[in-house]
Design brief:
single chain, mainly alpha, elongated
């Protein structure tokens, strides 16, 4: 029975960590670590949005946009909000567009790692 609880807790930490950066760590009572992850990843994604970056939806005409889509899914709630609100549309005329888009994609990829870190902590593989 303890194994089932541990797996539910580990998947909850993983899902919460993906949904909002650092929330999986806060769920596991790693408050400082969770707050640091939230500030860094949220700041990186916010900077990318402020600079005119784009959050990609699934497109099949270019293989690189498929990779960008999967990295942007890592932003969790931000990606979901971008599907319904007019954020992350990208301003191609801005000189910062490429860097901004890379910041948003990088934040998504980092969030995958942070969510997996929370999963490892919940499974007891890491402190």
């Amino acid at each position: 029975m303890l194994g089932v609880f541990m797996s539910i807790q580990s998947f909850a930490a993983l899902a919460l960590g993906w949904f909002i950066p650092g929330l999986g760590h806060i769920y596991l009572k790693k408050y400082i670590r969770g707050l640091i992850f939230f500030v860094c990843i949220f700041g990186m994604a916010s900077l990318g949005l402020f600079m005119g970056g784009r959050i990609y939806s699934f497109q099949t005409e270019n293989p690189l946009t498929i990779l960008a889509f999967f990295s942007d899914i890592g932003n969790g709630l931000l990606f979901i909000i971008s599907r319904f609100a007019a954020i992350g549309l990208g301003e191609l005329k801005k000189t910062t567009f490429e860097f901004a888009t890379a910041y948003i994609a990088g934040a998504g990829l980092l969030n995958y790692l942070v969510a997996l870190d929370a999963w490892d902590i919940a499974r007891g593989k890491k402190e």
